[in-house]
Design a protein that fits this description.
alpha/beta; Spore Coat Polysaccharide Biosynthesis Protein SpsA, Chain A; 2 domains; 7-stranded mixed beta sheet; 7 strands; 54% helix; elongated; binds guanosine-5'-diphosphate; binds magnesium ion; membrane; glycosyltransferase activity; GCTrfase_AglJ; Dolichol-phosphate mannosyltransferase; transmembrane
């Protein structure tokens, strides 16, 4: 990761706004979208793409009046919108934000600078400067737990994986396997950046409250559940030891617990009681658990060999280019 950044650092120090498309997904953001677009244009970003999810409040009209290119997404959800929009972008760099005015256009340059240094993906850390009322207490705690879980399972601390302020190269975006239709998209981006070793930078940004009268489309419980499921499911390729090991450990423990009960009833209790069926269940749970654990260790080993191979291949490719 780091060497890629160093290699290009000398070539450029900032990204030209002409090479950037500002991407704003919207769903009923009439109240704010005009000012958001105007803000980015003031910062020198002329190329603004609004991908709309069928707003009924005039969002699209206001967006085009403010000089944005407006597309209507063919499916539904923020994730599907982002995927479809990036396909329609032709410039090299994408700056993604919300249409609700919670991210500041003034932070755009800071978001893009790491791309000029050779990073491929940038995450804006909302916790660096979170204004009063920008996030409910429940969401703040949920975000913390999700970020800790992510760092534990996937081995990289990106501080704020659910942030909607992102900058990335179109090329690196194409390397990510993204399938989420809804708010799981940010989680998938973070997981896939680890998996495909997309060099990722985290920069501090300001997070503002939504203006009065506009509503978030996020459902904390439903979307939180989707995110946790995503973190676990994709552990298979980033951390197989955790993926198989967690279930293996639980199964082994349950097996031992049942076995202790069976043993107690047979050896200690008077008169002794025999539990044949439970004994079989206990043995099966322990065997299953230990097998899963071994599977996890093997998969983990295969993964590290695979990563080593990829590193060597990339190094060879790099050497080939410089000749
Ligand atoms: N195109 C599109 N945009 C959406 C959809 N759902 C949400 N958005 C937009 O995605 C951005 C983030 O959503 P928001 O409700 O602010 O979520 P939060 O920032 O996590 O509270 C906003 O600009 C929304 O208007 C959707 O289904 N389609
Ligand atoms: Mg928002």
């Amino acid at each position: 990761m780091e060497h890629a950044a160093a290699a290009t650092a000398a070539e450029a120090t900032s990204v030209s706004p002409d090479d950037v498309c500002v991407l704003l997904p919207t769903y009923n953001e009439a109240e704010t979208i005009g000012e958001v677009i105007a803000g980015y244009r003031r910062e020198g970003f002329e190329n603004v793409l609004v991908i709309d999810g069928g707003s009924e409040d005039g969002t699209r009209k206001i967006a085009s009046e403010h000089g944005a290119r407006v597309l209507i997404q063919s499916g539904s959800g923020k994730g599907q919108a982002i995927r479809e929009a990036v396909d329609a972008i032709e410039v090299d760099y994408v700056l993604m934000a919300d249409g609700d005015g919670t991210y500041r256009p003034e932070d755009a340059v800071q978001m893009l600078d790491p791309l000029a240094e050779g990073y491929e993906h940038v995450i804006g850390d909302r916790f660096a400067d979170m204004q009063e009322g920008a996030m409910t207490g429940l969401n703040r705690i949920g975000n913390r737990i999700i970020n800790r879980t992510f760092a534990f399972i996937h081995g990289q601390d990106y501080q704020d994986i659910l942030s909607g302020y992102r900058a990335f190269t179109r090329e690196s975006f194409d390397r990510l396997t993204l399938t989420a239709d809804g708010f799981g998209i940010e989680t998938q981006m973070a997981i896939e950046c680890v998996k495909h070793e997309v060099s990722t930078a985290v920069v501090p940004i300001t997070y503002r409250p939504r203006p009065d009268g506009s509503n978030t489309n996020l459902h904390p419980l439903r979307d939180g559940g989707i995110i946790f499921l995503e973190l676990y499911r994709r552990a298979k390729t980033n951390n197989p030891l955790f993926y198989f090991g967690s279930v293996g450990t639980v199964s082994t423990f349950v097996g031992f617990a049942v076995a202790s009960y069976v043993g107690y009833e047979w050896f200690i209790r008077v008169p002794r009681v025999s539990h044949e069926v439970l004994a079989i269940v206990a043995a099966a749970a322990v065997l299953f658990g230990v097998q899963l654990l071994m599977f996890g260790v093997l998969a983990d080993m295969i993964l590290s060999f695979h990563r080593e191979q990829i590193d060597r291949l990339e190094k060879l490719e790099g050497d080939g280019r410089s000749d």
